[in-house]
């Protein structure tokens, strides 16, 4: 170090090549670098924006739920694991919400979409929002059951988007997410085995966790009209096409854990409207109150 004042911190502000800026991290790769951001010809901008919101909201809301486990997980390593999974999903949400904002052309960025929409404007599946965190009524096994189902479904979806979406941005975001989601699924599967094939008590807890999340599973495979239209144009994936693959994965994991899929019906929404339509569970309002409080209390603040 040759700075004149001898301060170890002075070098942080010096102009150096990227590799020298160790304090700010190095080796980061922008998954959208060089990707064509133009909306594919013939695609309805409102539909594409809505689809990006659907996928972005799924990730944002579940990220918020998983972050609730920080400092409250059963063991220290699980604190770190849950935080990392939450950050992965938050990263996916940022890319997808940014894409939604630029496609809709209304001048809304990722922050505006995350913090200044009301409950009925969110398009996430209800599985992501149900409260099974560390607070009252929450349970770690239920969180694992949800993560197993969600990551298995989202990995199947993103694998198809990465391989063939006609929107280069969606394909690039999905390609980045595939590696992350493969880890999420593996982590949830390992915990499912550990709990399901553990003690009598842990088995019962895992069984109860599956029962809690199962009524929300059918919604994952219920096509929304936006998804159907975009699937016909090669942009999106019809979620109904994912059912057999996801069921196969879940059956393998549950069988090895000494468990089986619950024989429970799906939970319908009012007049058939579900999370993709902006109809949510009671838990969603409380989640958004916590997620959005600071931004709404100090609009325009920068930190």
TrEMBL record:
Entries under InterPro entries matching the protein: Aromatic_CoA_ox/epox, Ferritin-like, Ferritin-like_SF, PaaA_PaaC, PaaC
GO biological process: phenylacetate catabolic process
Protein name per Swiss-Prot or TrEMBL: Ring-1,2-phenylacetyl-CoA epoxidase subunit PaaC
Domain of life the protein comes from: Bacteria
A single cellular component GO annotation: cytosol
